[in-house]
Write a structure and sequence with these properties.
Layout (H helix, E strand, L loop, with lengths): L1 H4 L21 H14 L4 E5 L6 H13 L5 E7 L5 H10 L6 E7 L6 H12 L8 E7 L2 H6 L5 H5 L1 E6 L5 H14 L10 H11 L3 H17 L7 H9 L11
Parallel strand pairs: 1-4, 1-5, 2-3, 3-4
Helix pairs in contact: 8-9, 9-10, 9-11, 10-11
Amino acid sequence: MYLQYFGFSNQPFSDTPDVRLFWEDHCSQLIFKSLLQGFAEKSILQLVIAEPGLGKSVLCRRLLNSLRSHRSRYNVLFMPFPNLTVTELLSSAMASTDCSRHKVLIIDEAQALSDSSLRELMEALKQQDSNDPELQIVLFAQPELVDKLADPEFEQIELLVSKRFDLPPLTAEQTAAYINNRLTLTGVPPETLMNHELAKLAYKFTGGIPRLINTLMRKSLLHAYEDQSPTLSADHLSRAALSTAATVPGTVD
């Protein structure tokens, strides 16, 4: 019963991709809508850049699932690196003779693409009609890809980017909203566990990085359970931060 009260049965702070990063005014939701608009505008190449842990792959999978739910409109190919090669994906995409559906290629972790794969991608992009592309591509990547595209060899890829989105960390206010939302969705009233000061402390320890927030809060809840405490405390969060190797440097004494 105690574990259920803290929401462990529903894993409120698991790292499983979900839609809890998508509320109306958050940038993930705004980027998601803009990406969909990019398809309607026939954008050849869209780029989403984010540091690890900010929800880039969650956004990627939400876009993928949304497009695949409209199978009559989109023919979607997905590369969760390193599942397939770019050659295989491009061959599959261009082999389809179904002109009634938009061809879309989505690549996650695109910063890991080899130079040869980037060259293949560049050639495929150069063959597209800028006004009515046969294939539309979205790359989700860490900032290393930006450095790669700065190389003169790949400047044509950079020139063909129709839209670029940078996914930032959550603000202090968004961190509090994110934690409260996750607790609420599991049936735990946030006010019974959290307060404004604890939310500020969670932001201090995590820098607003969702993956770190998940880890910190999960460990904090475990410490509260071990102490048989009905609420969270600053001590619980501090102990959780001390046992979490990936907290923001310099925030834990």
